[in-house]
Amino acid sequence: MNSSVRNGNSCPKESEENGNNETSETRYPDGTVKLRNPHIELMDQDILYHIALGSESHDLVEMFGDVKFVCMGGTPKRMETFAHYIMKEIGYKLPTGTTLMDISQYSYRYSMYKVGPVISVSHGMGVPSIGILLHEMIKLMYHAKAKDPIFFRIGTCGGLGLEPGTVVISDDVVDGLGNHYYSVPILGKVVKRPAKLEKKLVRELKALATQDDPYDTTTGTTMCAEDFYEGQGRIDGAFCDYTEADKQDYLENLVRQGVKNIEMEAVPFAALTHQAGIKAAIVCVTLLNRLKGDQVAAPKEVMNEYQQRPQILVARYIKKYLQTKGRLCSLDGHGSIAVKSPRRFKLVQQESQTFE
Questions:
Q1: Does some domain include residue 38?
Q2: Where does this protein hold phosphate (predicted)?
Q3: Which of 6, 31, 246, 310 lies in disulfide reach of 147, CB 3.0 to 4.6 Å?
């Protein structure tokens, strides 16, 4: 196999704020998303297998054209909870007799809910899972003609020198080797895509943390591991070839490098949104201090409360944005799937159910 390396040099030219989201490479003049894949426009239909949608089976402009925020987190239950929470926070009203619907229920892979201009979707665990979802969510924004969407990852993590329950807003991301890029083997060659987050968005989120919050909110570097156990220096996996002292030395060295937390999705999230010219931020809550142990021991009710904290901060941002734009007063929903072609609609359902 050819092991040569080529750098991803098609990234949008950067501004001082870590990415100009309105470059001609990533946006049309009206602000809608432009894909960096010329093949999509030539396809009869683009089936988004893993979220059970299609460009010709569904009227994606009608369904998602008003989307401004895409919020994603690991589990379906967490993102269903966030959907109900943001619905209350922004005053979104469903028609009488209707409930929030899992739009991607036929995929059996991810769960997705839409609350006015907000999508709440699960991304699963780890680099491959979130990578697949990001490709399809970016394509969804393109097909829907959504204008300048903002992506958020709302998650959990292990803290480094931080008390459990601390909220961490990532201002930089690295992989397990300290690299600031996402390495993807493509056609036998390794492509490196810069993993960057917009600093302005980080500052805006940090400014929304208040002294009344009964927990700390901080910013810092996030390490993205490709494994839960050995990849994060745990000693409680099925295998372990290092000592407790080795682990402590490693974690303390990460702290000296400015790493505040460890999770499993930050690098592809930052790299693919940056490649697409989409503003993005990562907000996680620490479930434990890894300098003091490897296993989460907090009671379930405490864990549930911790997981609400990133949701609260992101909801503050969304609510403030909508208030500034005067959009909180017109949030009545239709709560329906818009079908363009019943035949293609059935095909997409079948493809999504059987695609491996």
A1: yes
A2: 109, 153-156
A3: 31
User: In total, how many domains does the chain have?
Assistant: 1
| 155 marked among binding-site residues | yes
Instruction: Confirm whether residue 45 is marked as ligand binding.
Output: no
Residue 91 has pLDDT above 70, yes or no: yes
Q: Give me the percent of the chain exceeding a pLDDT of 90.
A: 80
Residue 2: pLDDT band with limits 50, 70, 90: very low
234 annotated to bind ligand: yes
Question: Is the pLDDT at 14 greater than 50, yes or no?
Answer: no
CATH number at residue 42: 3.40.50.1580
Q: Nearest CA to 47 among 139, 151, 149, 141? A: 139
> pLDDT-derived band of residue 344, with 50, 70 and 90 as boundaries?
low
Q: Tell me the residue range of the domain where 292 lies.
A: 25-354
Q: What angle do CA 268, 353, 337 make, to 5 degrees?
A: 85
The verdict on residue 12 lying in a domain is no
The answer to whether residues 182 and 193 touch, using CB atoms and an 8 Å cutoff, is: yes
158 is in an annotated binding site: no
> Does residue 235 carry a pLDDT above 80?
yes
Q: How far is CA 61 from CA 101, 103, 137, 189, 191, in A?
A: 18, 15, 14, 36, 32
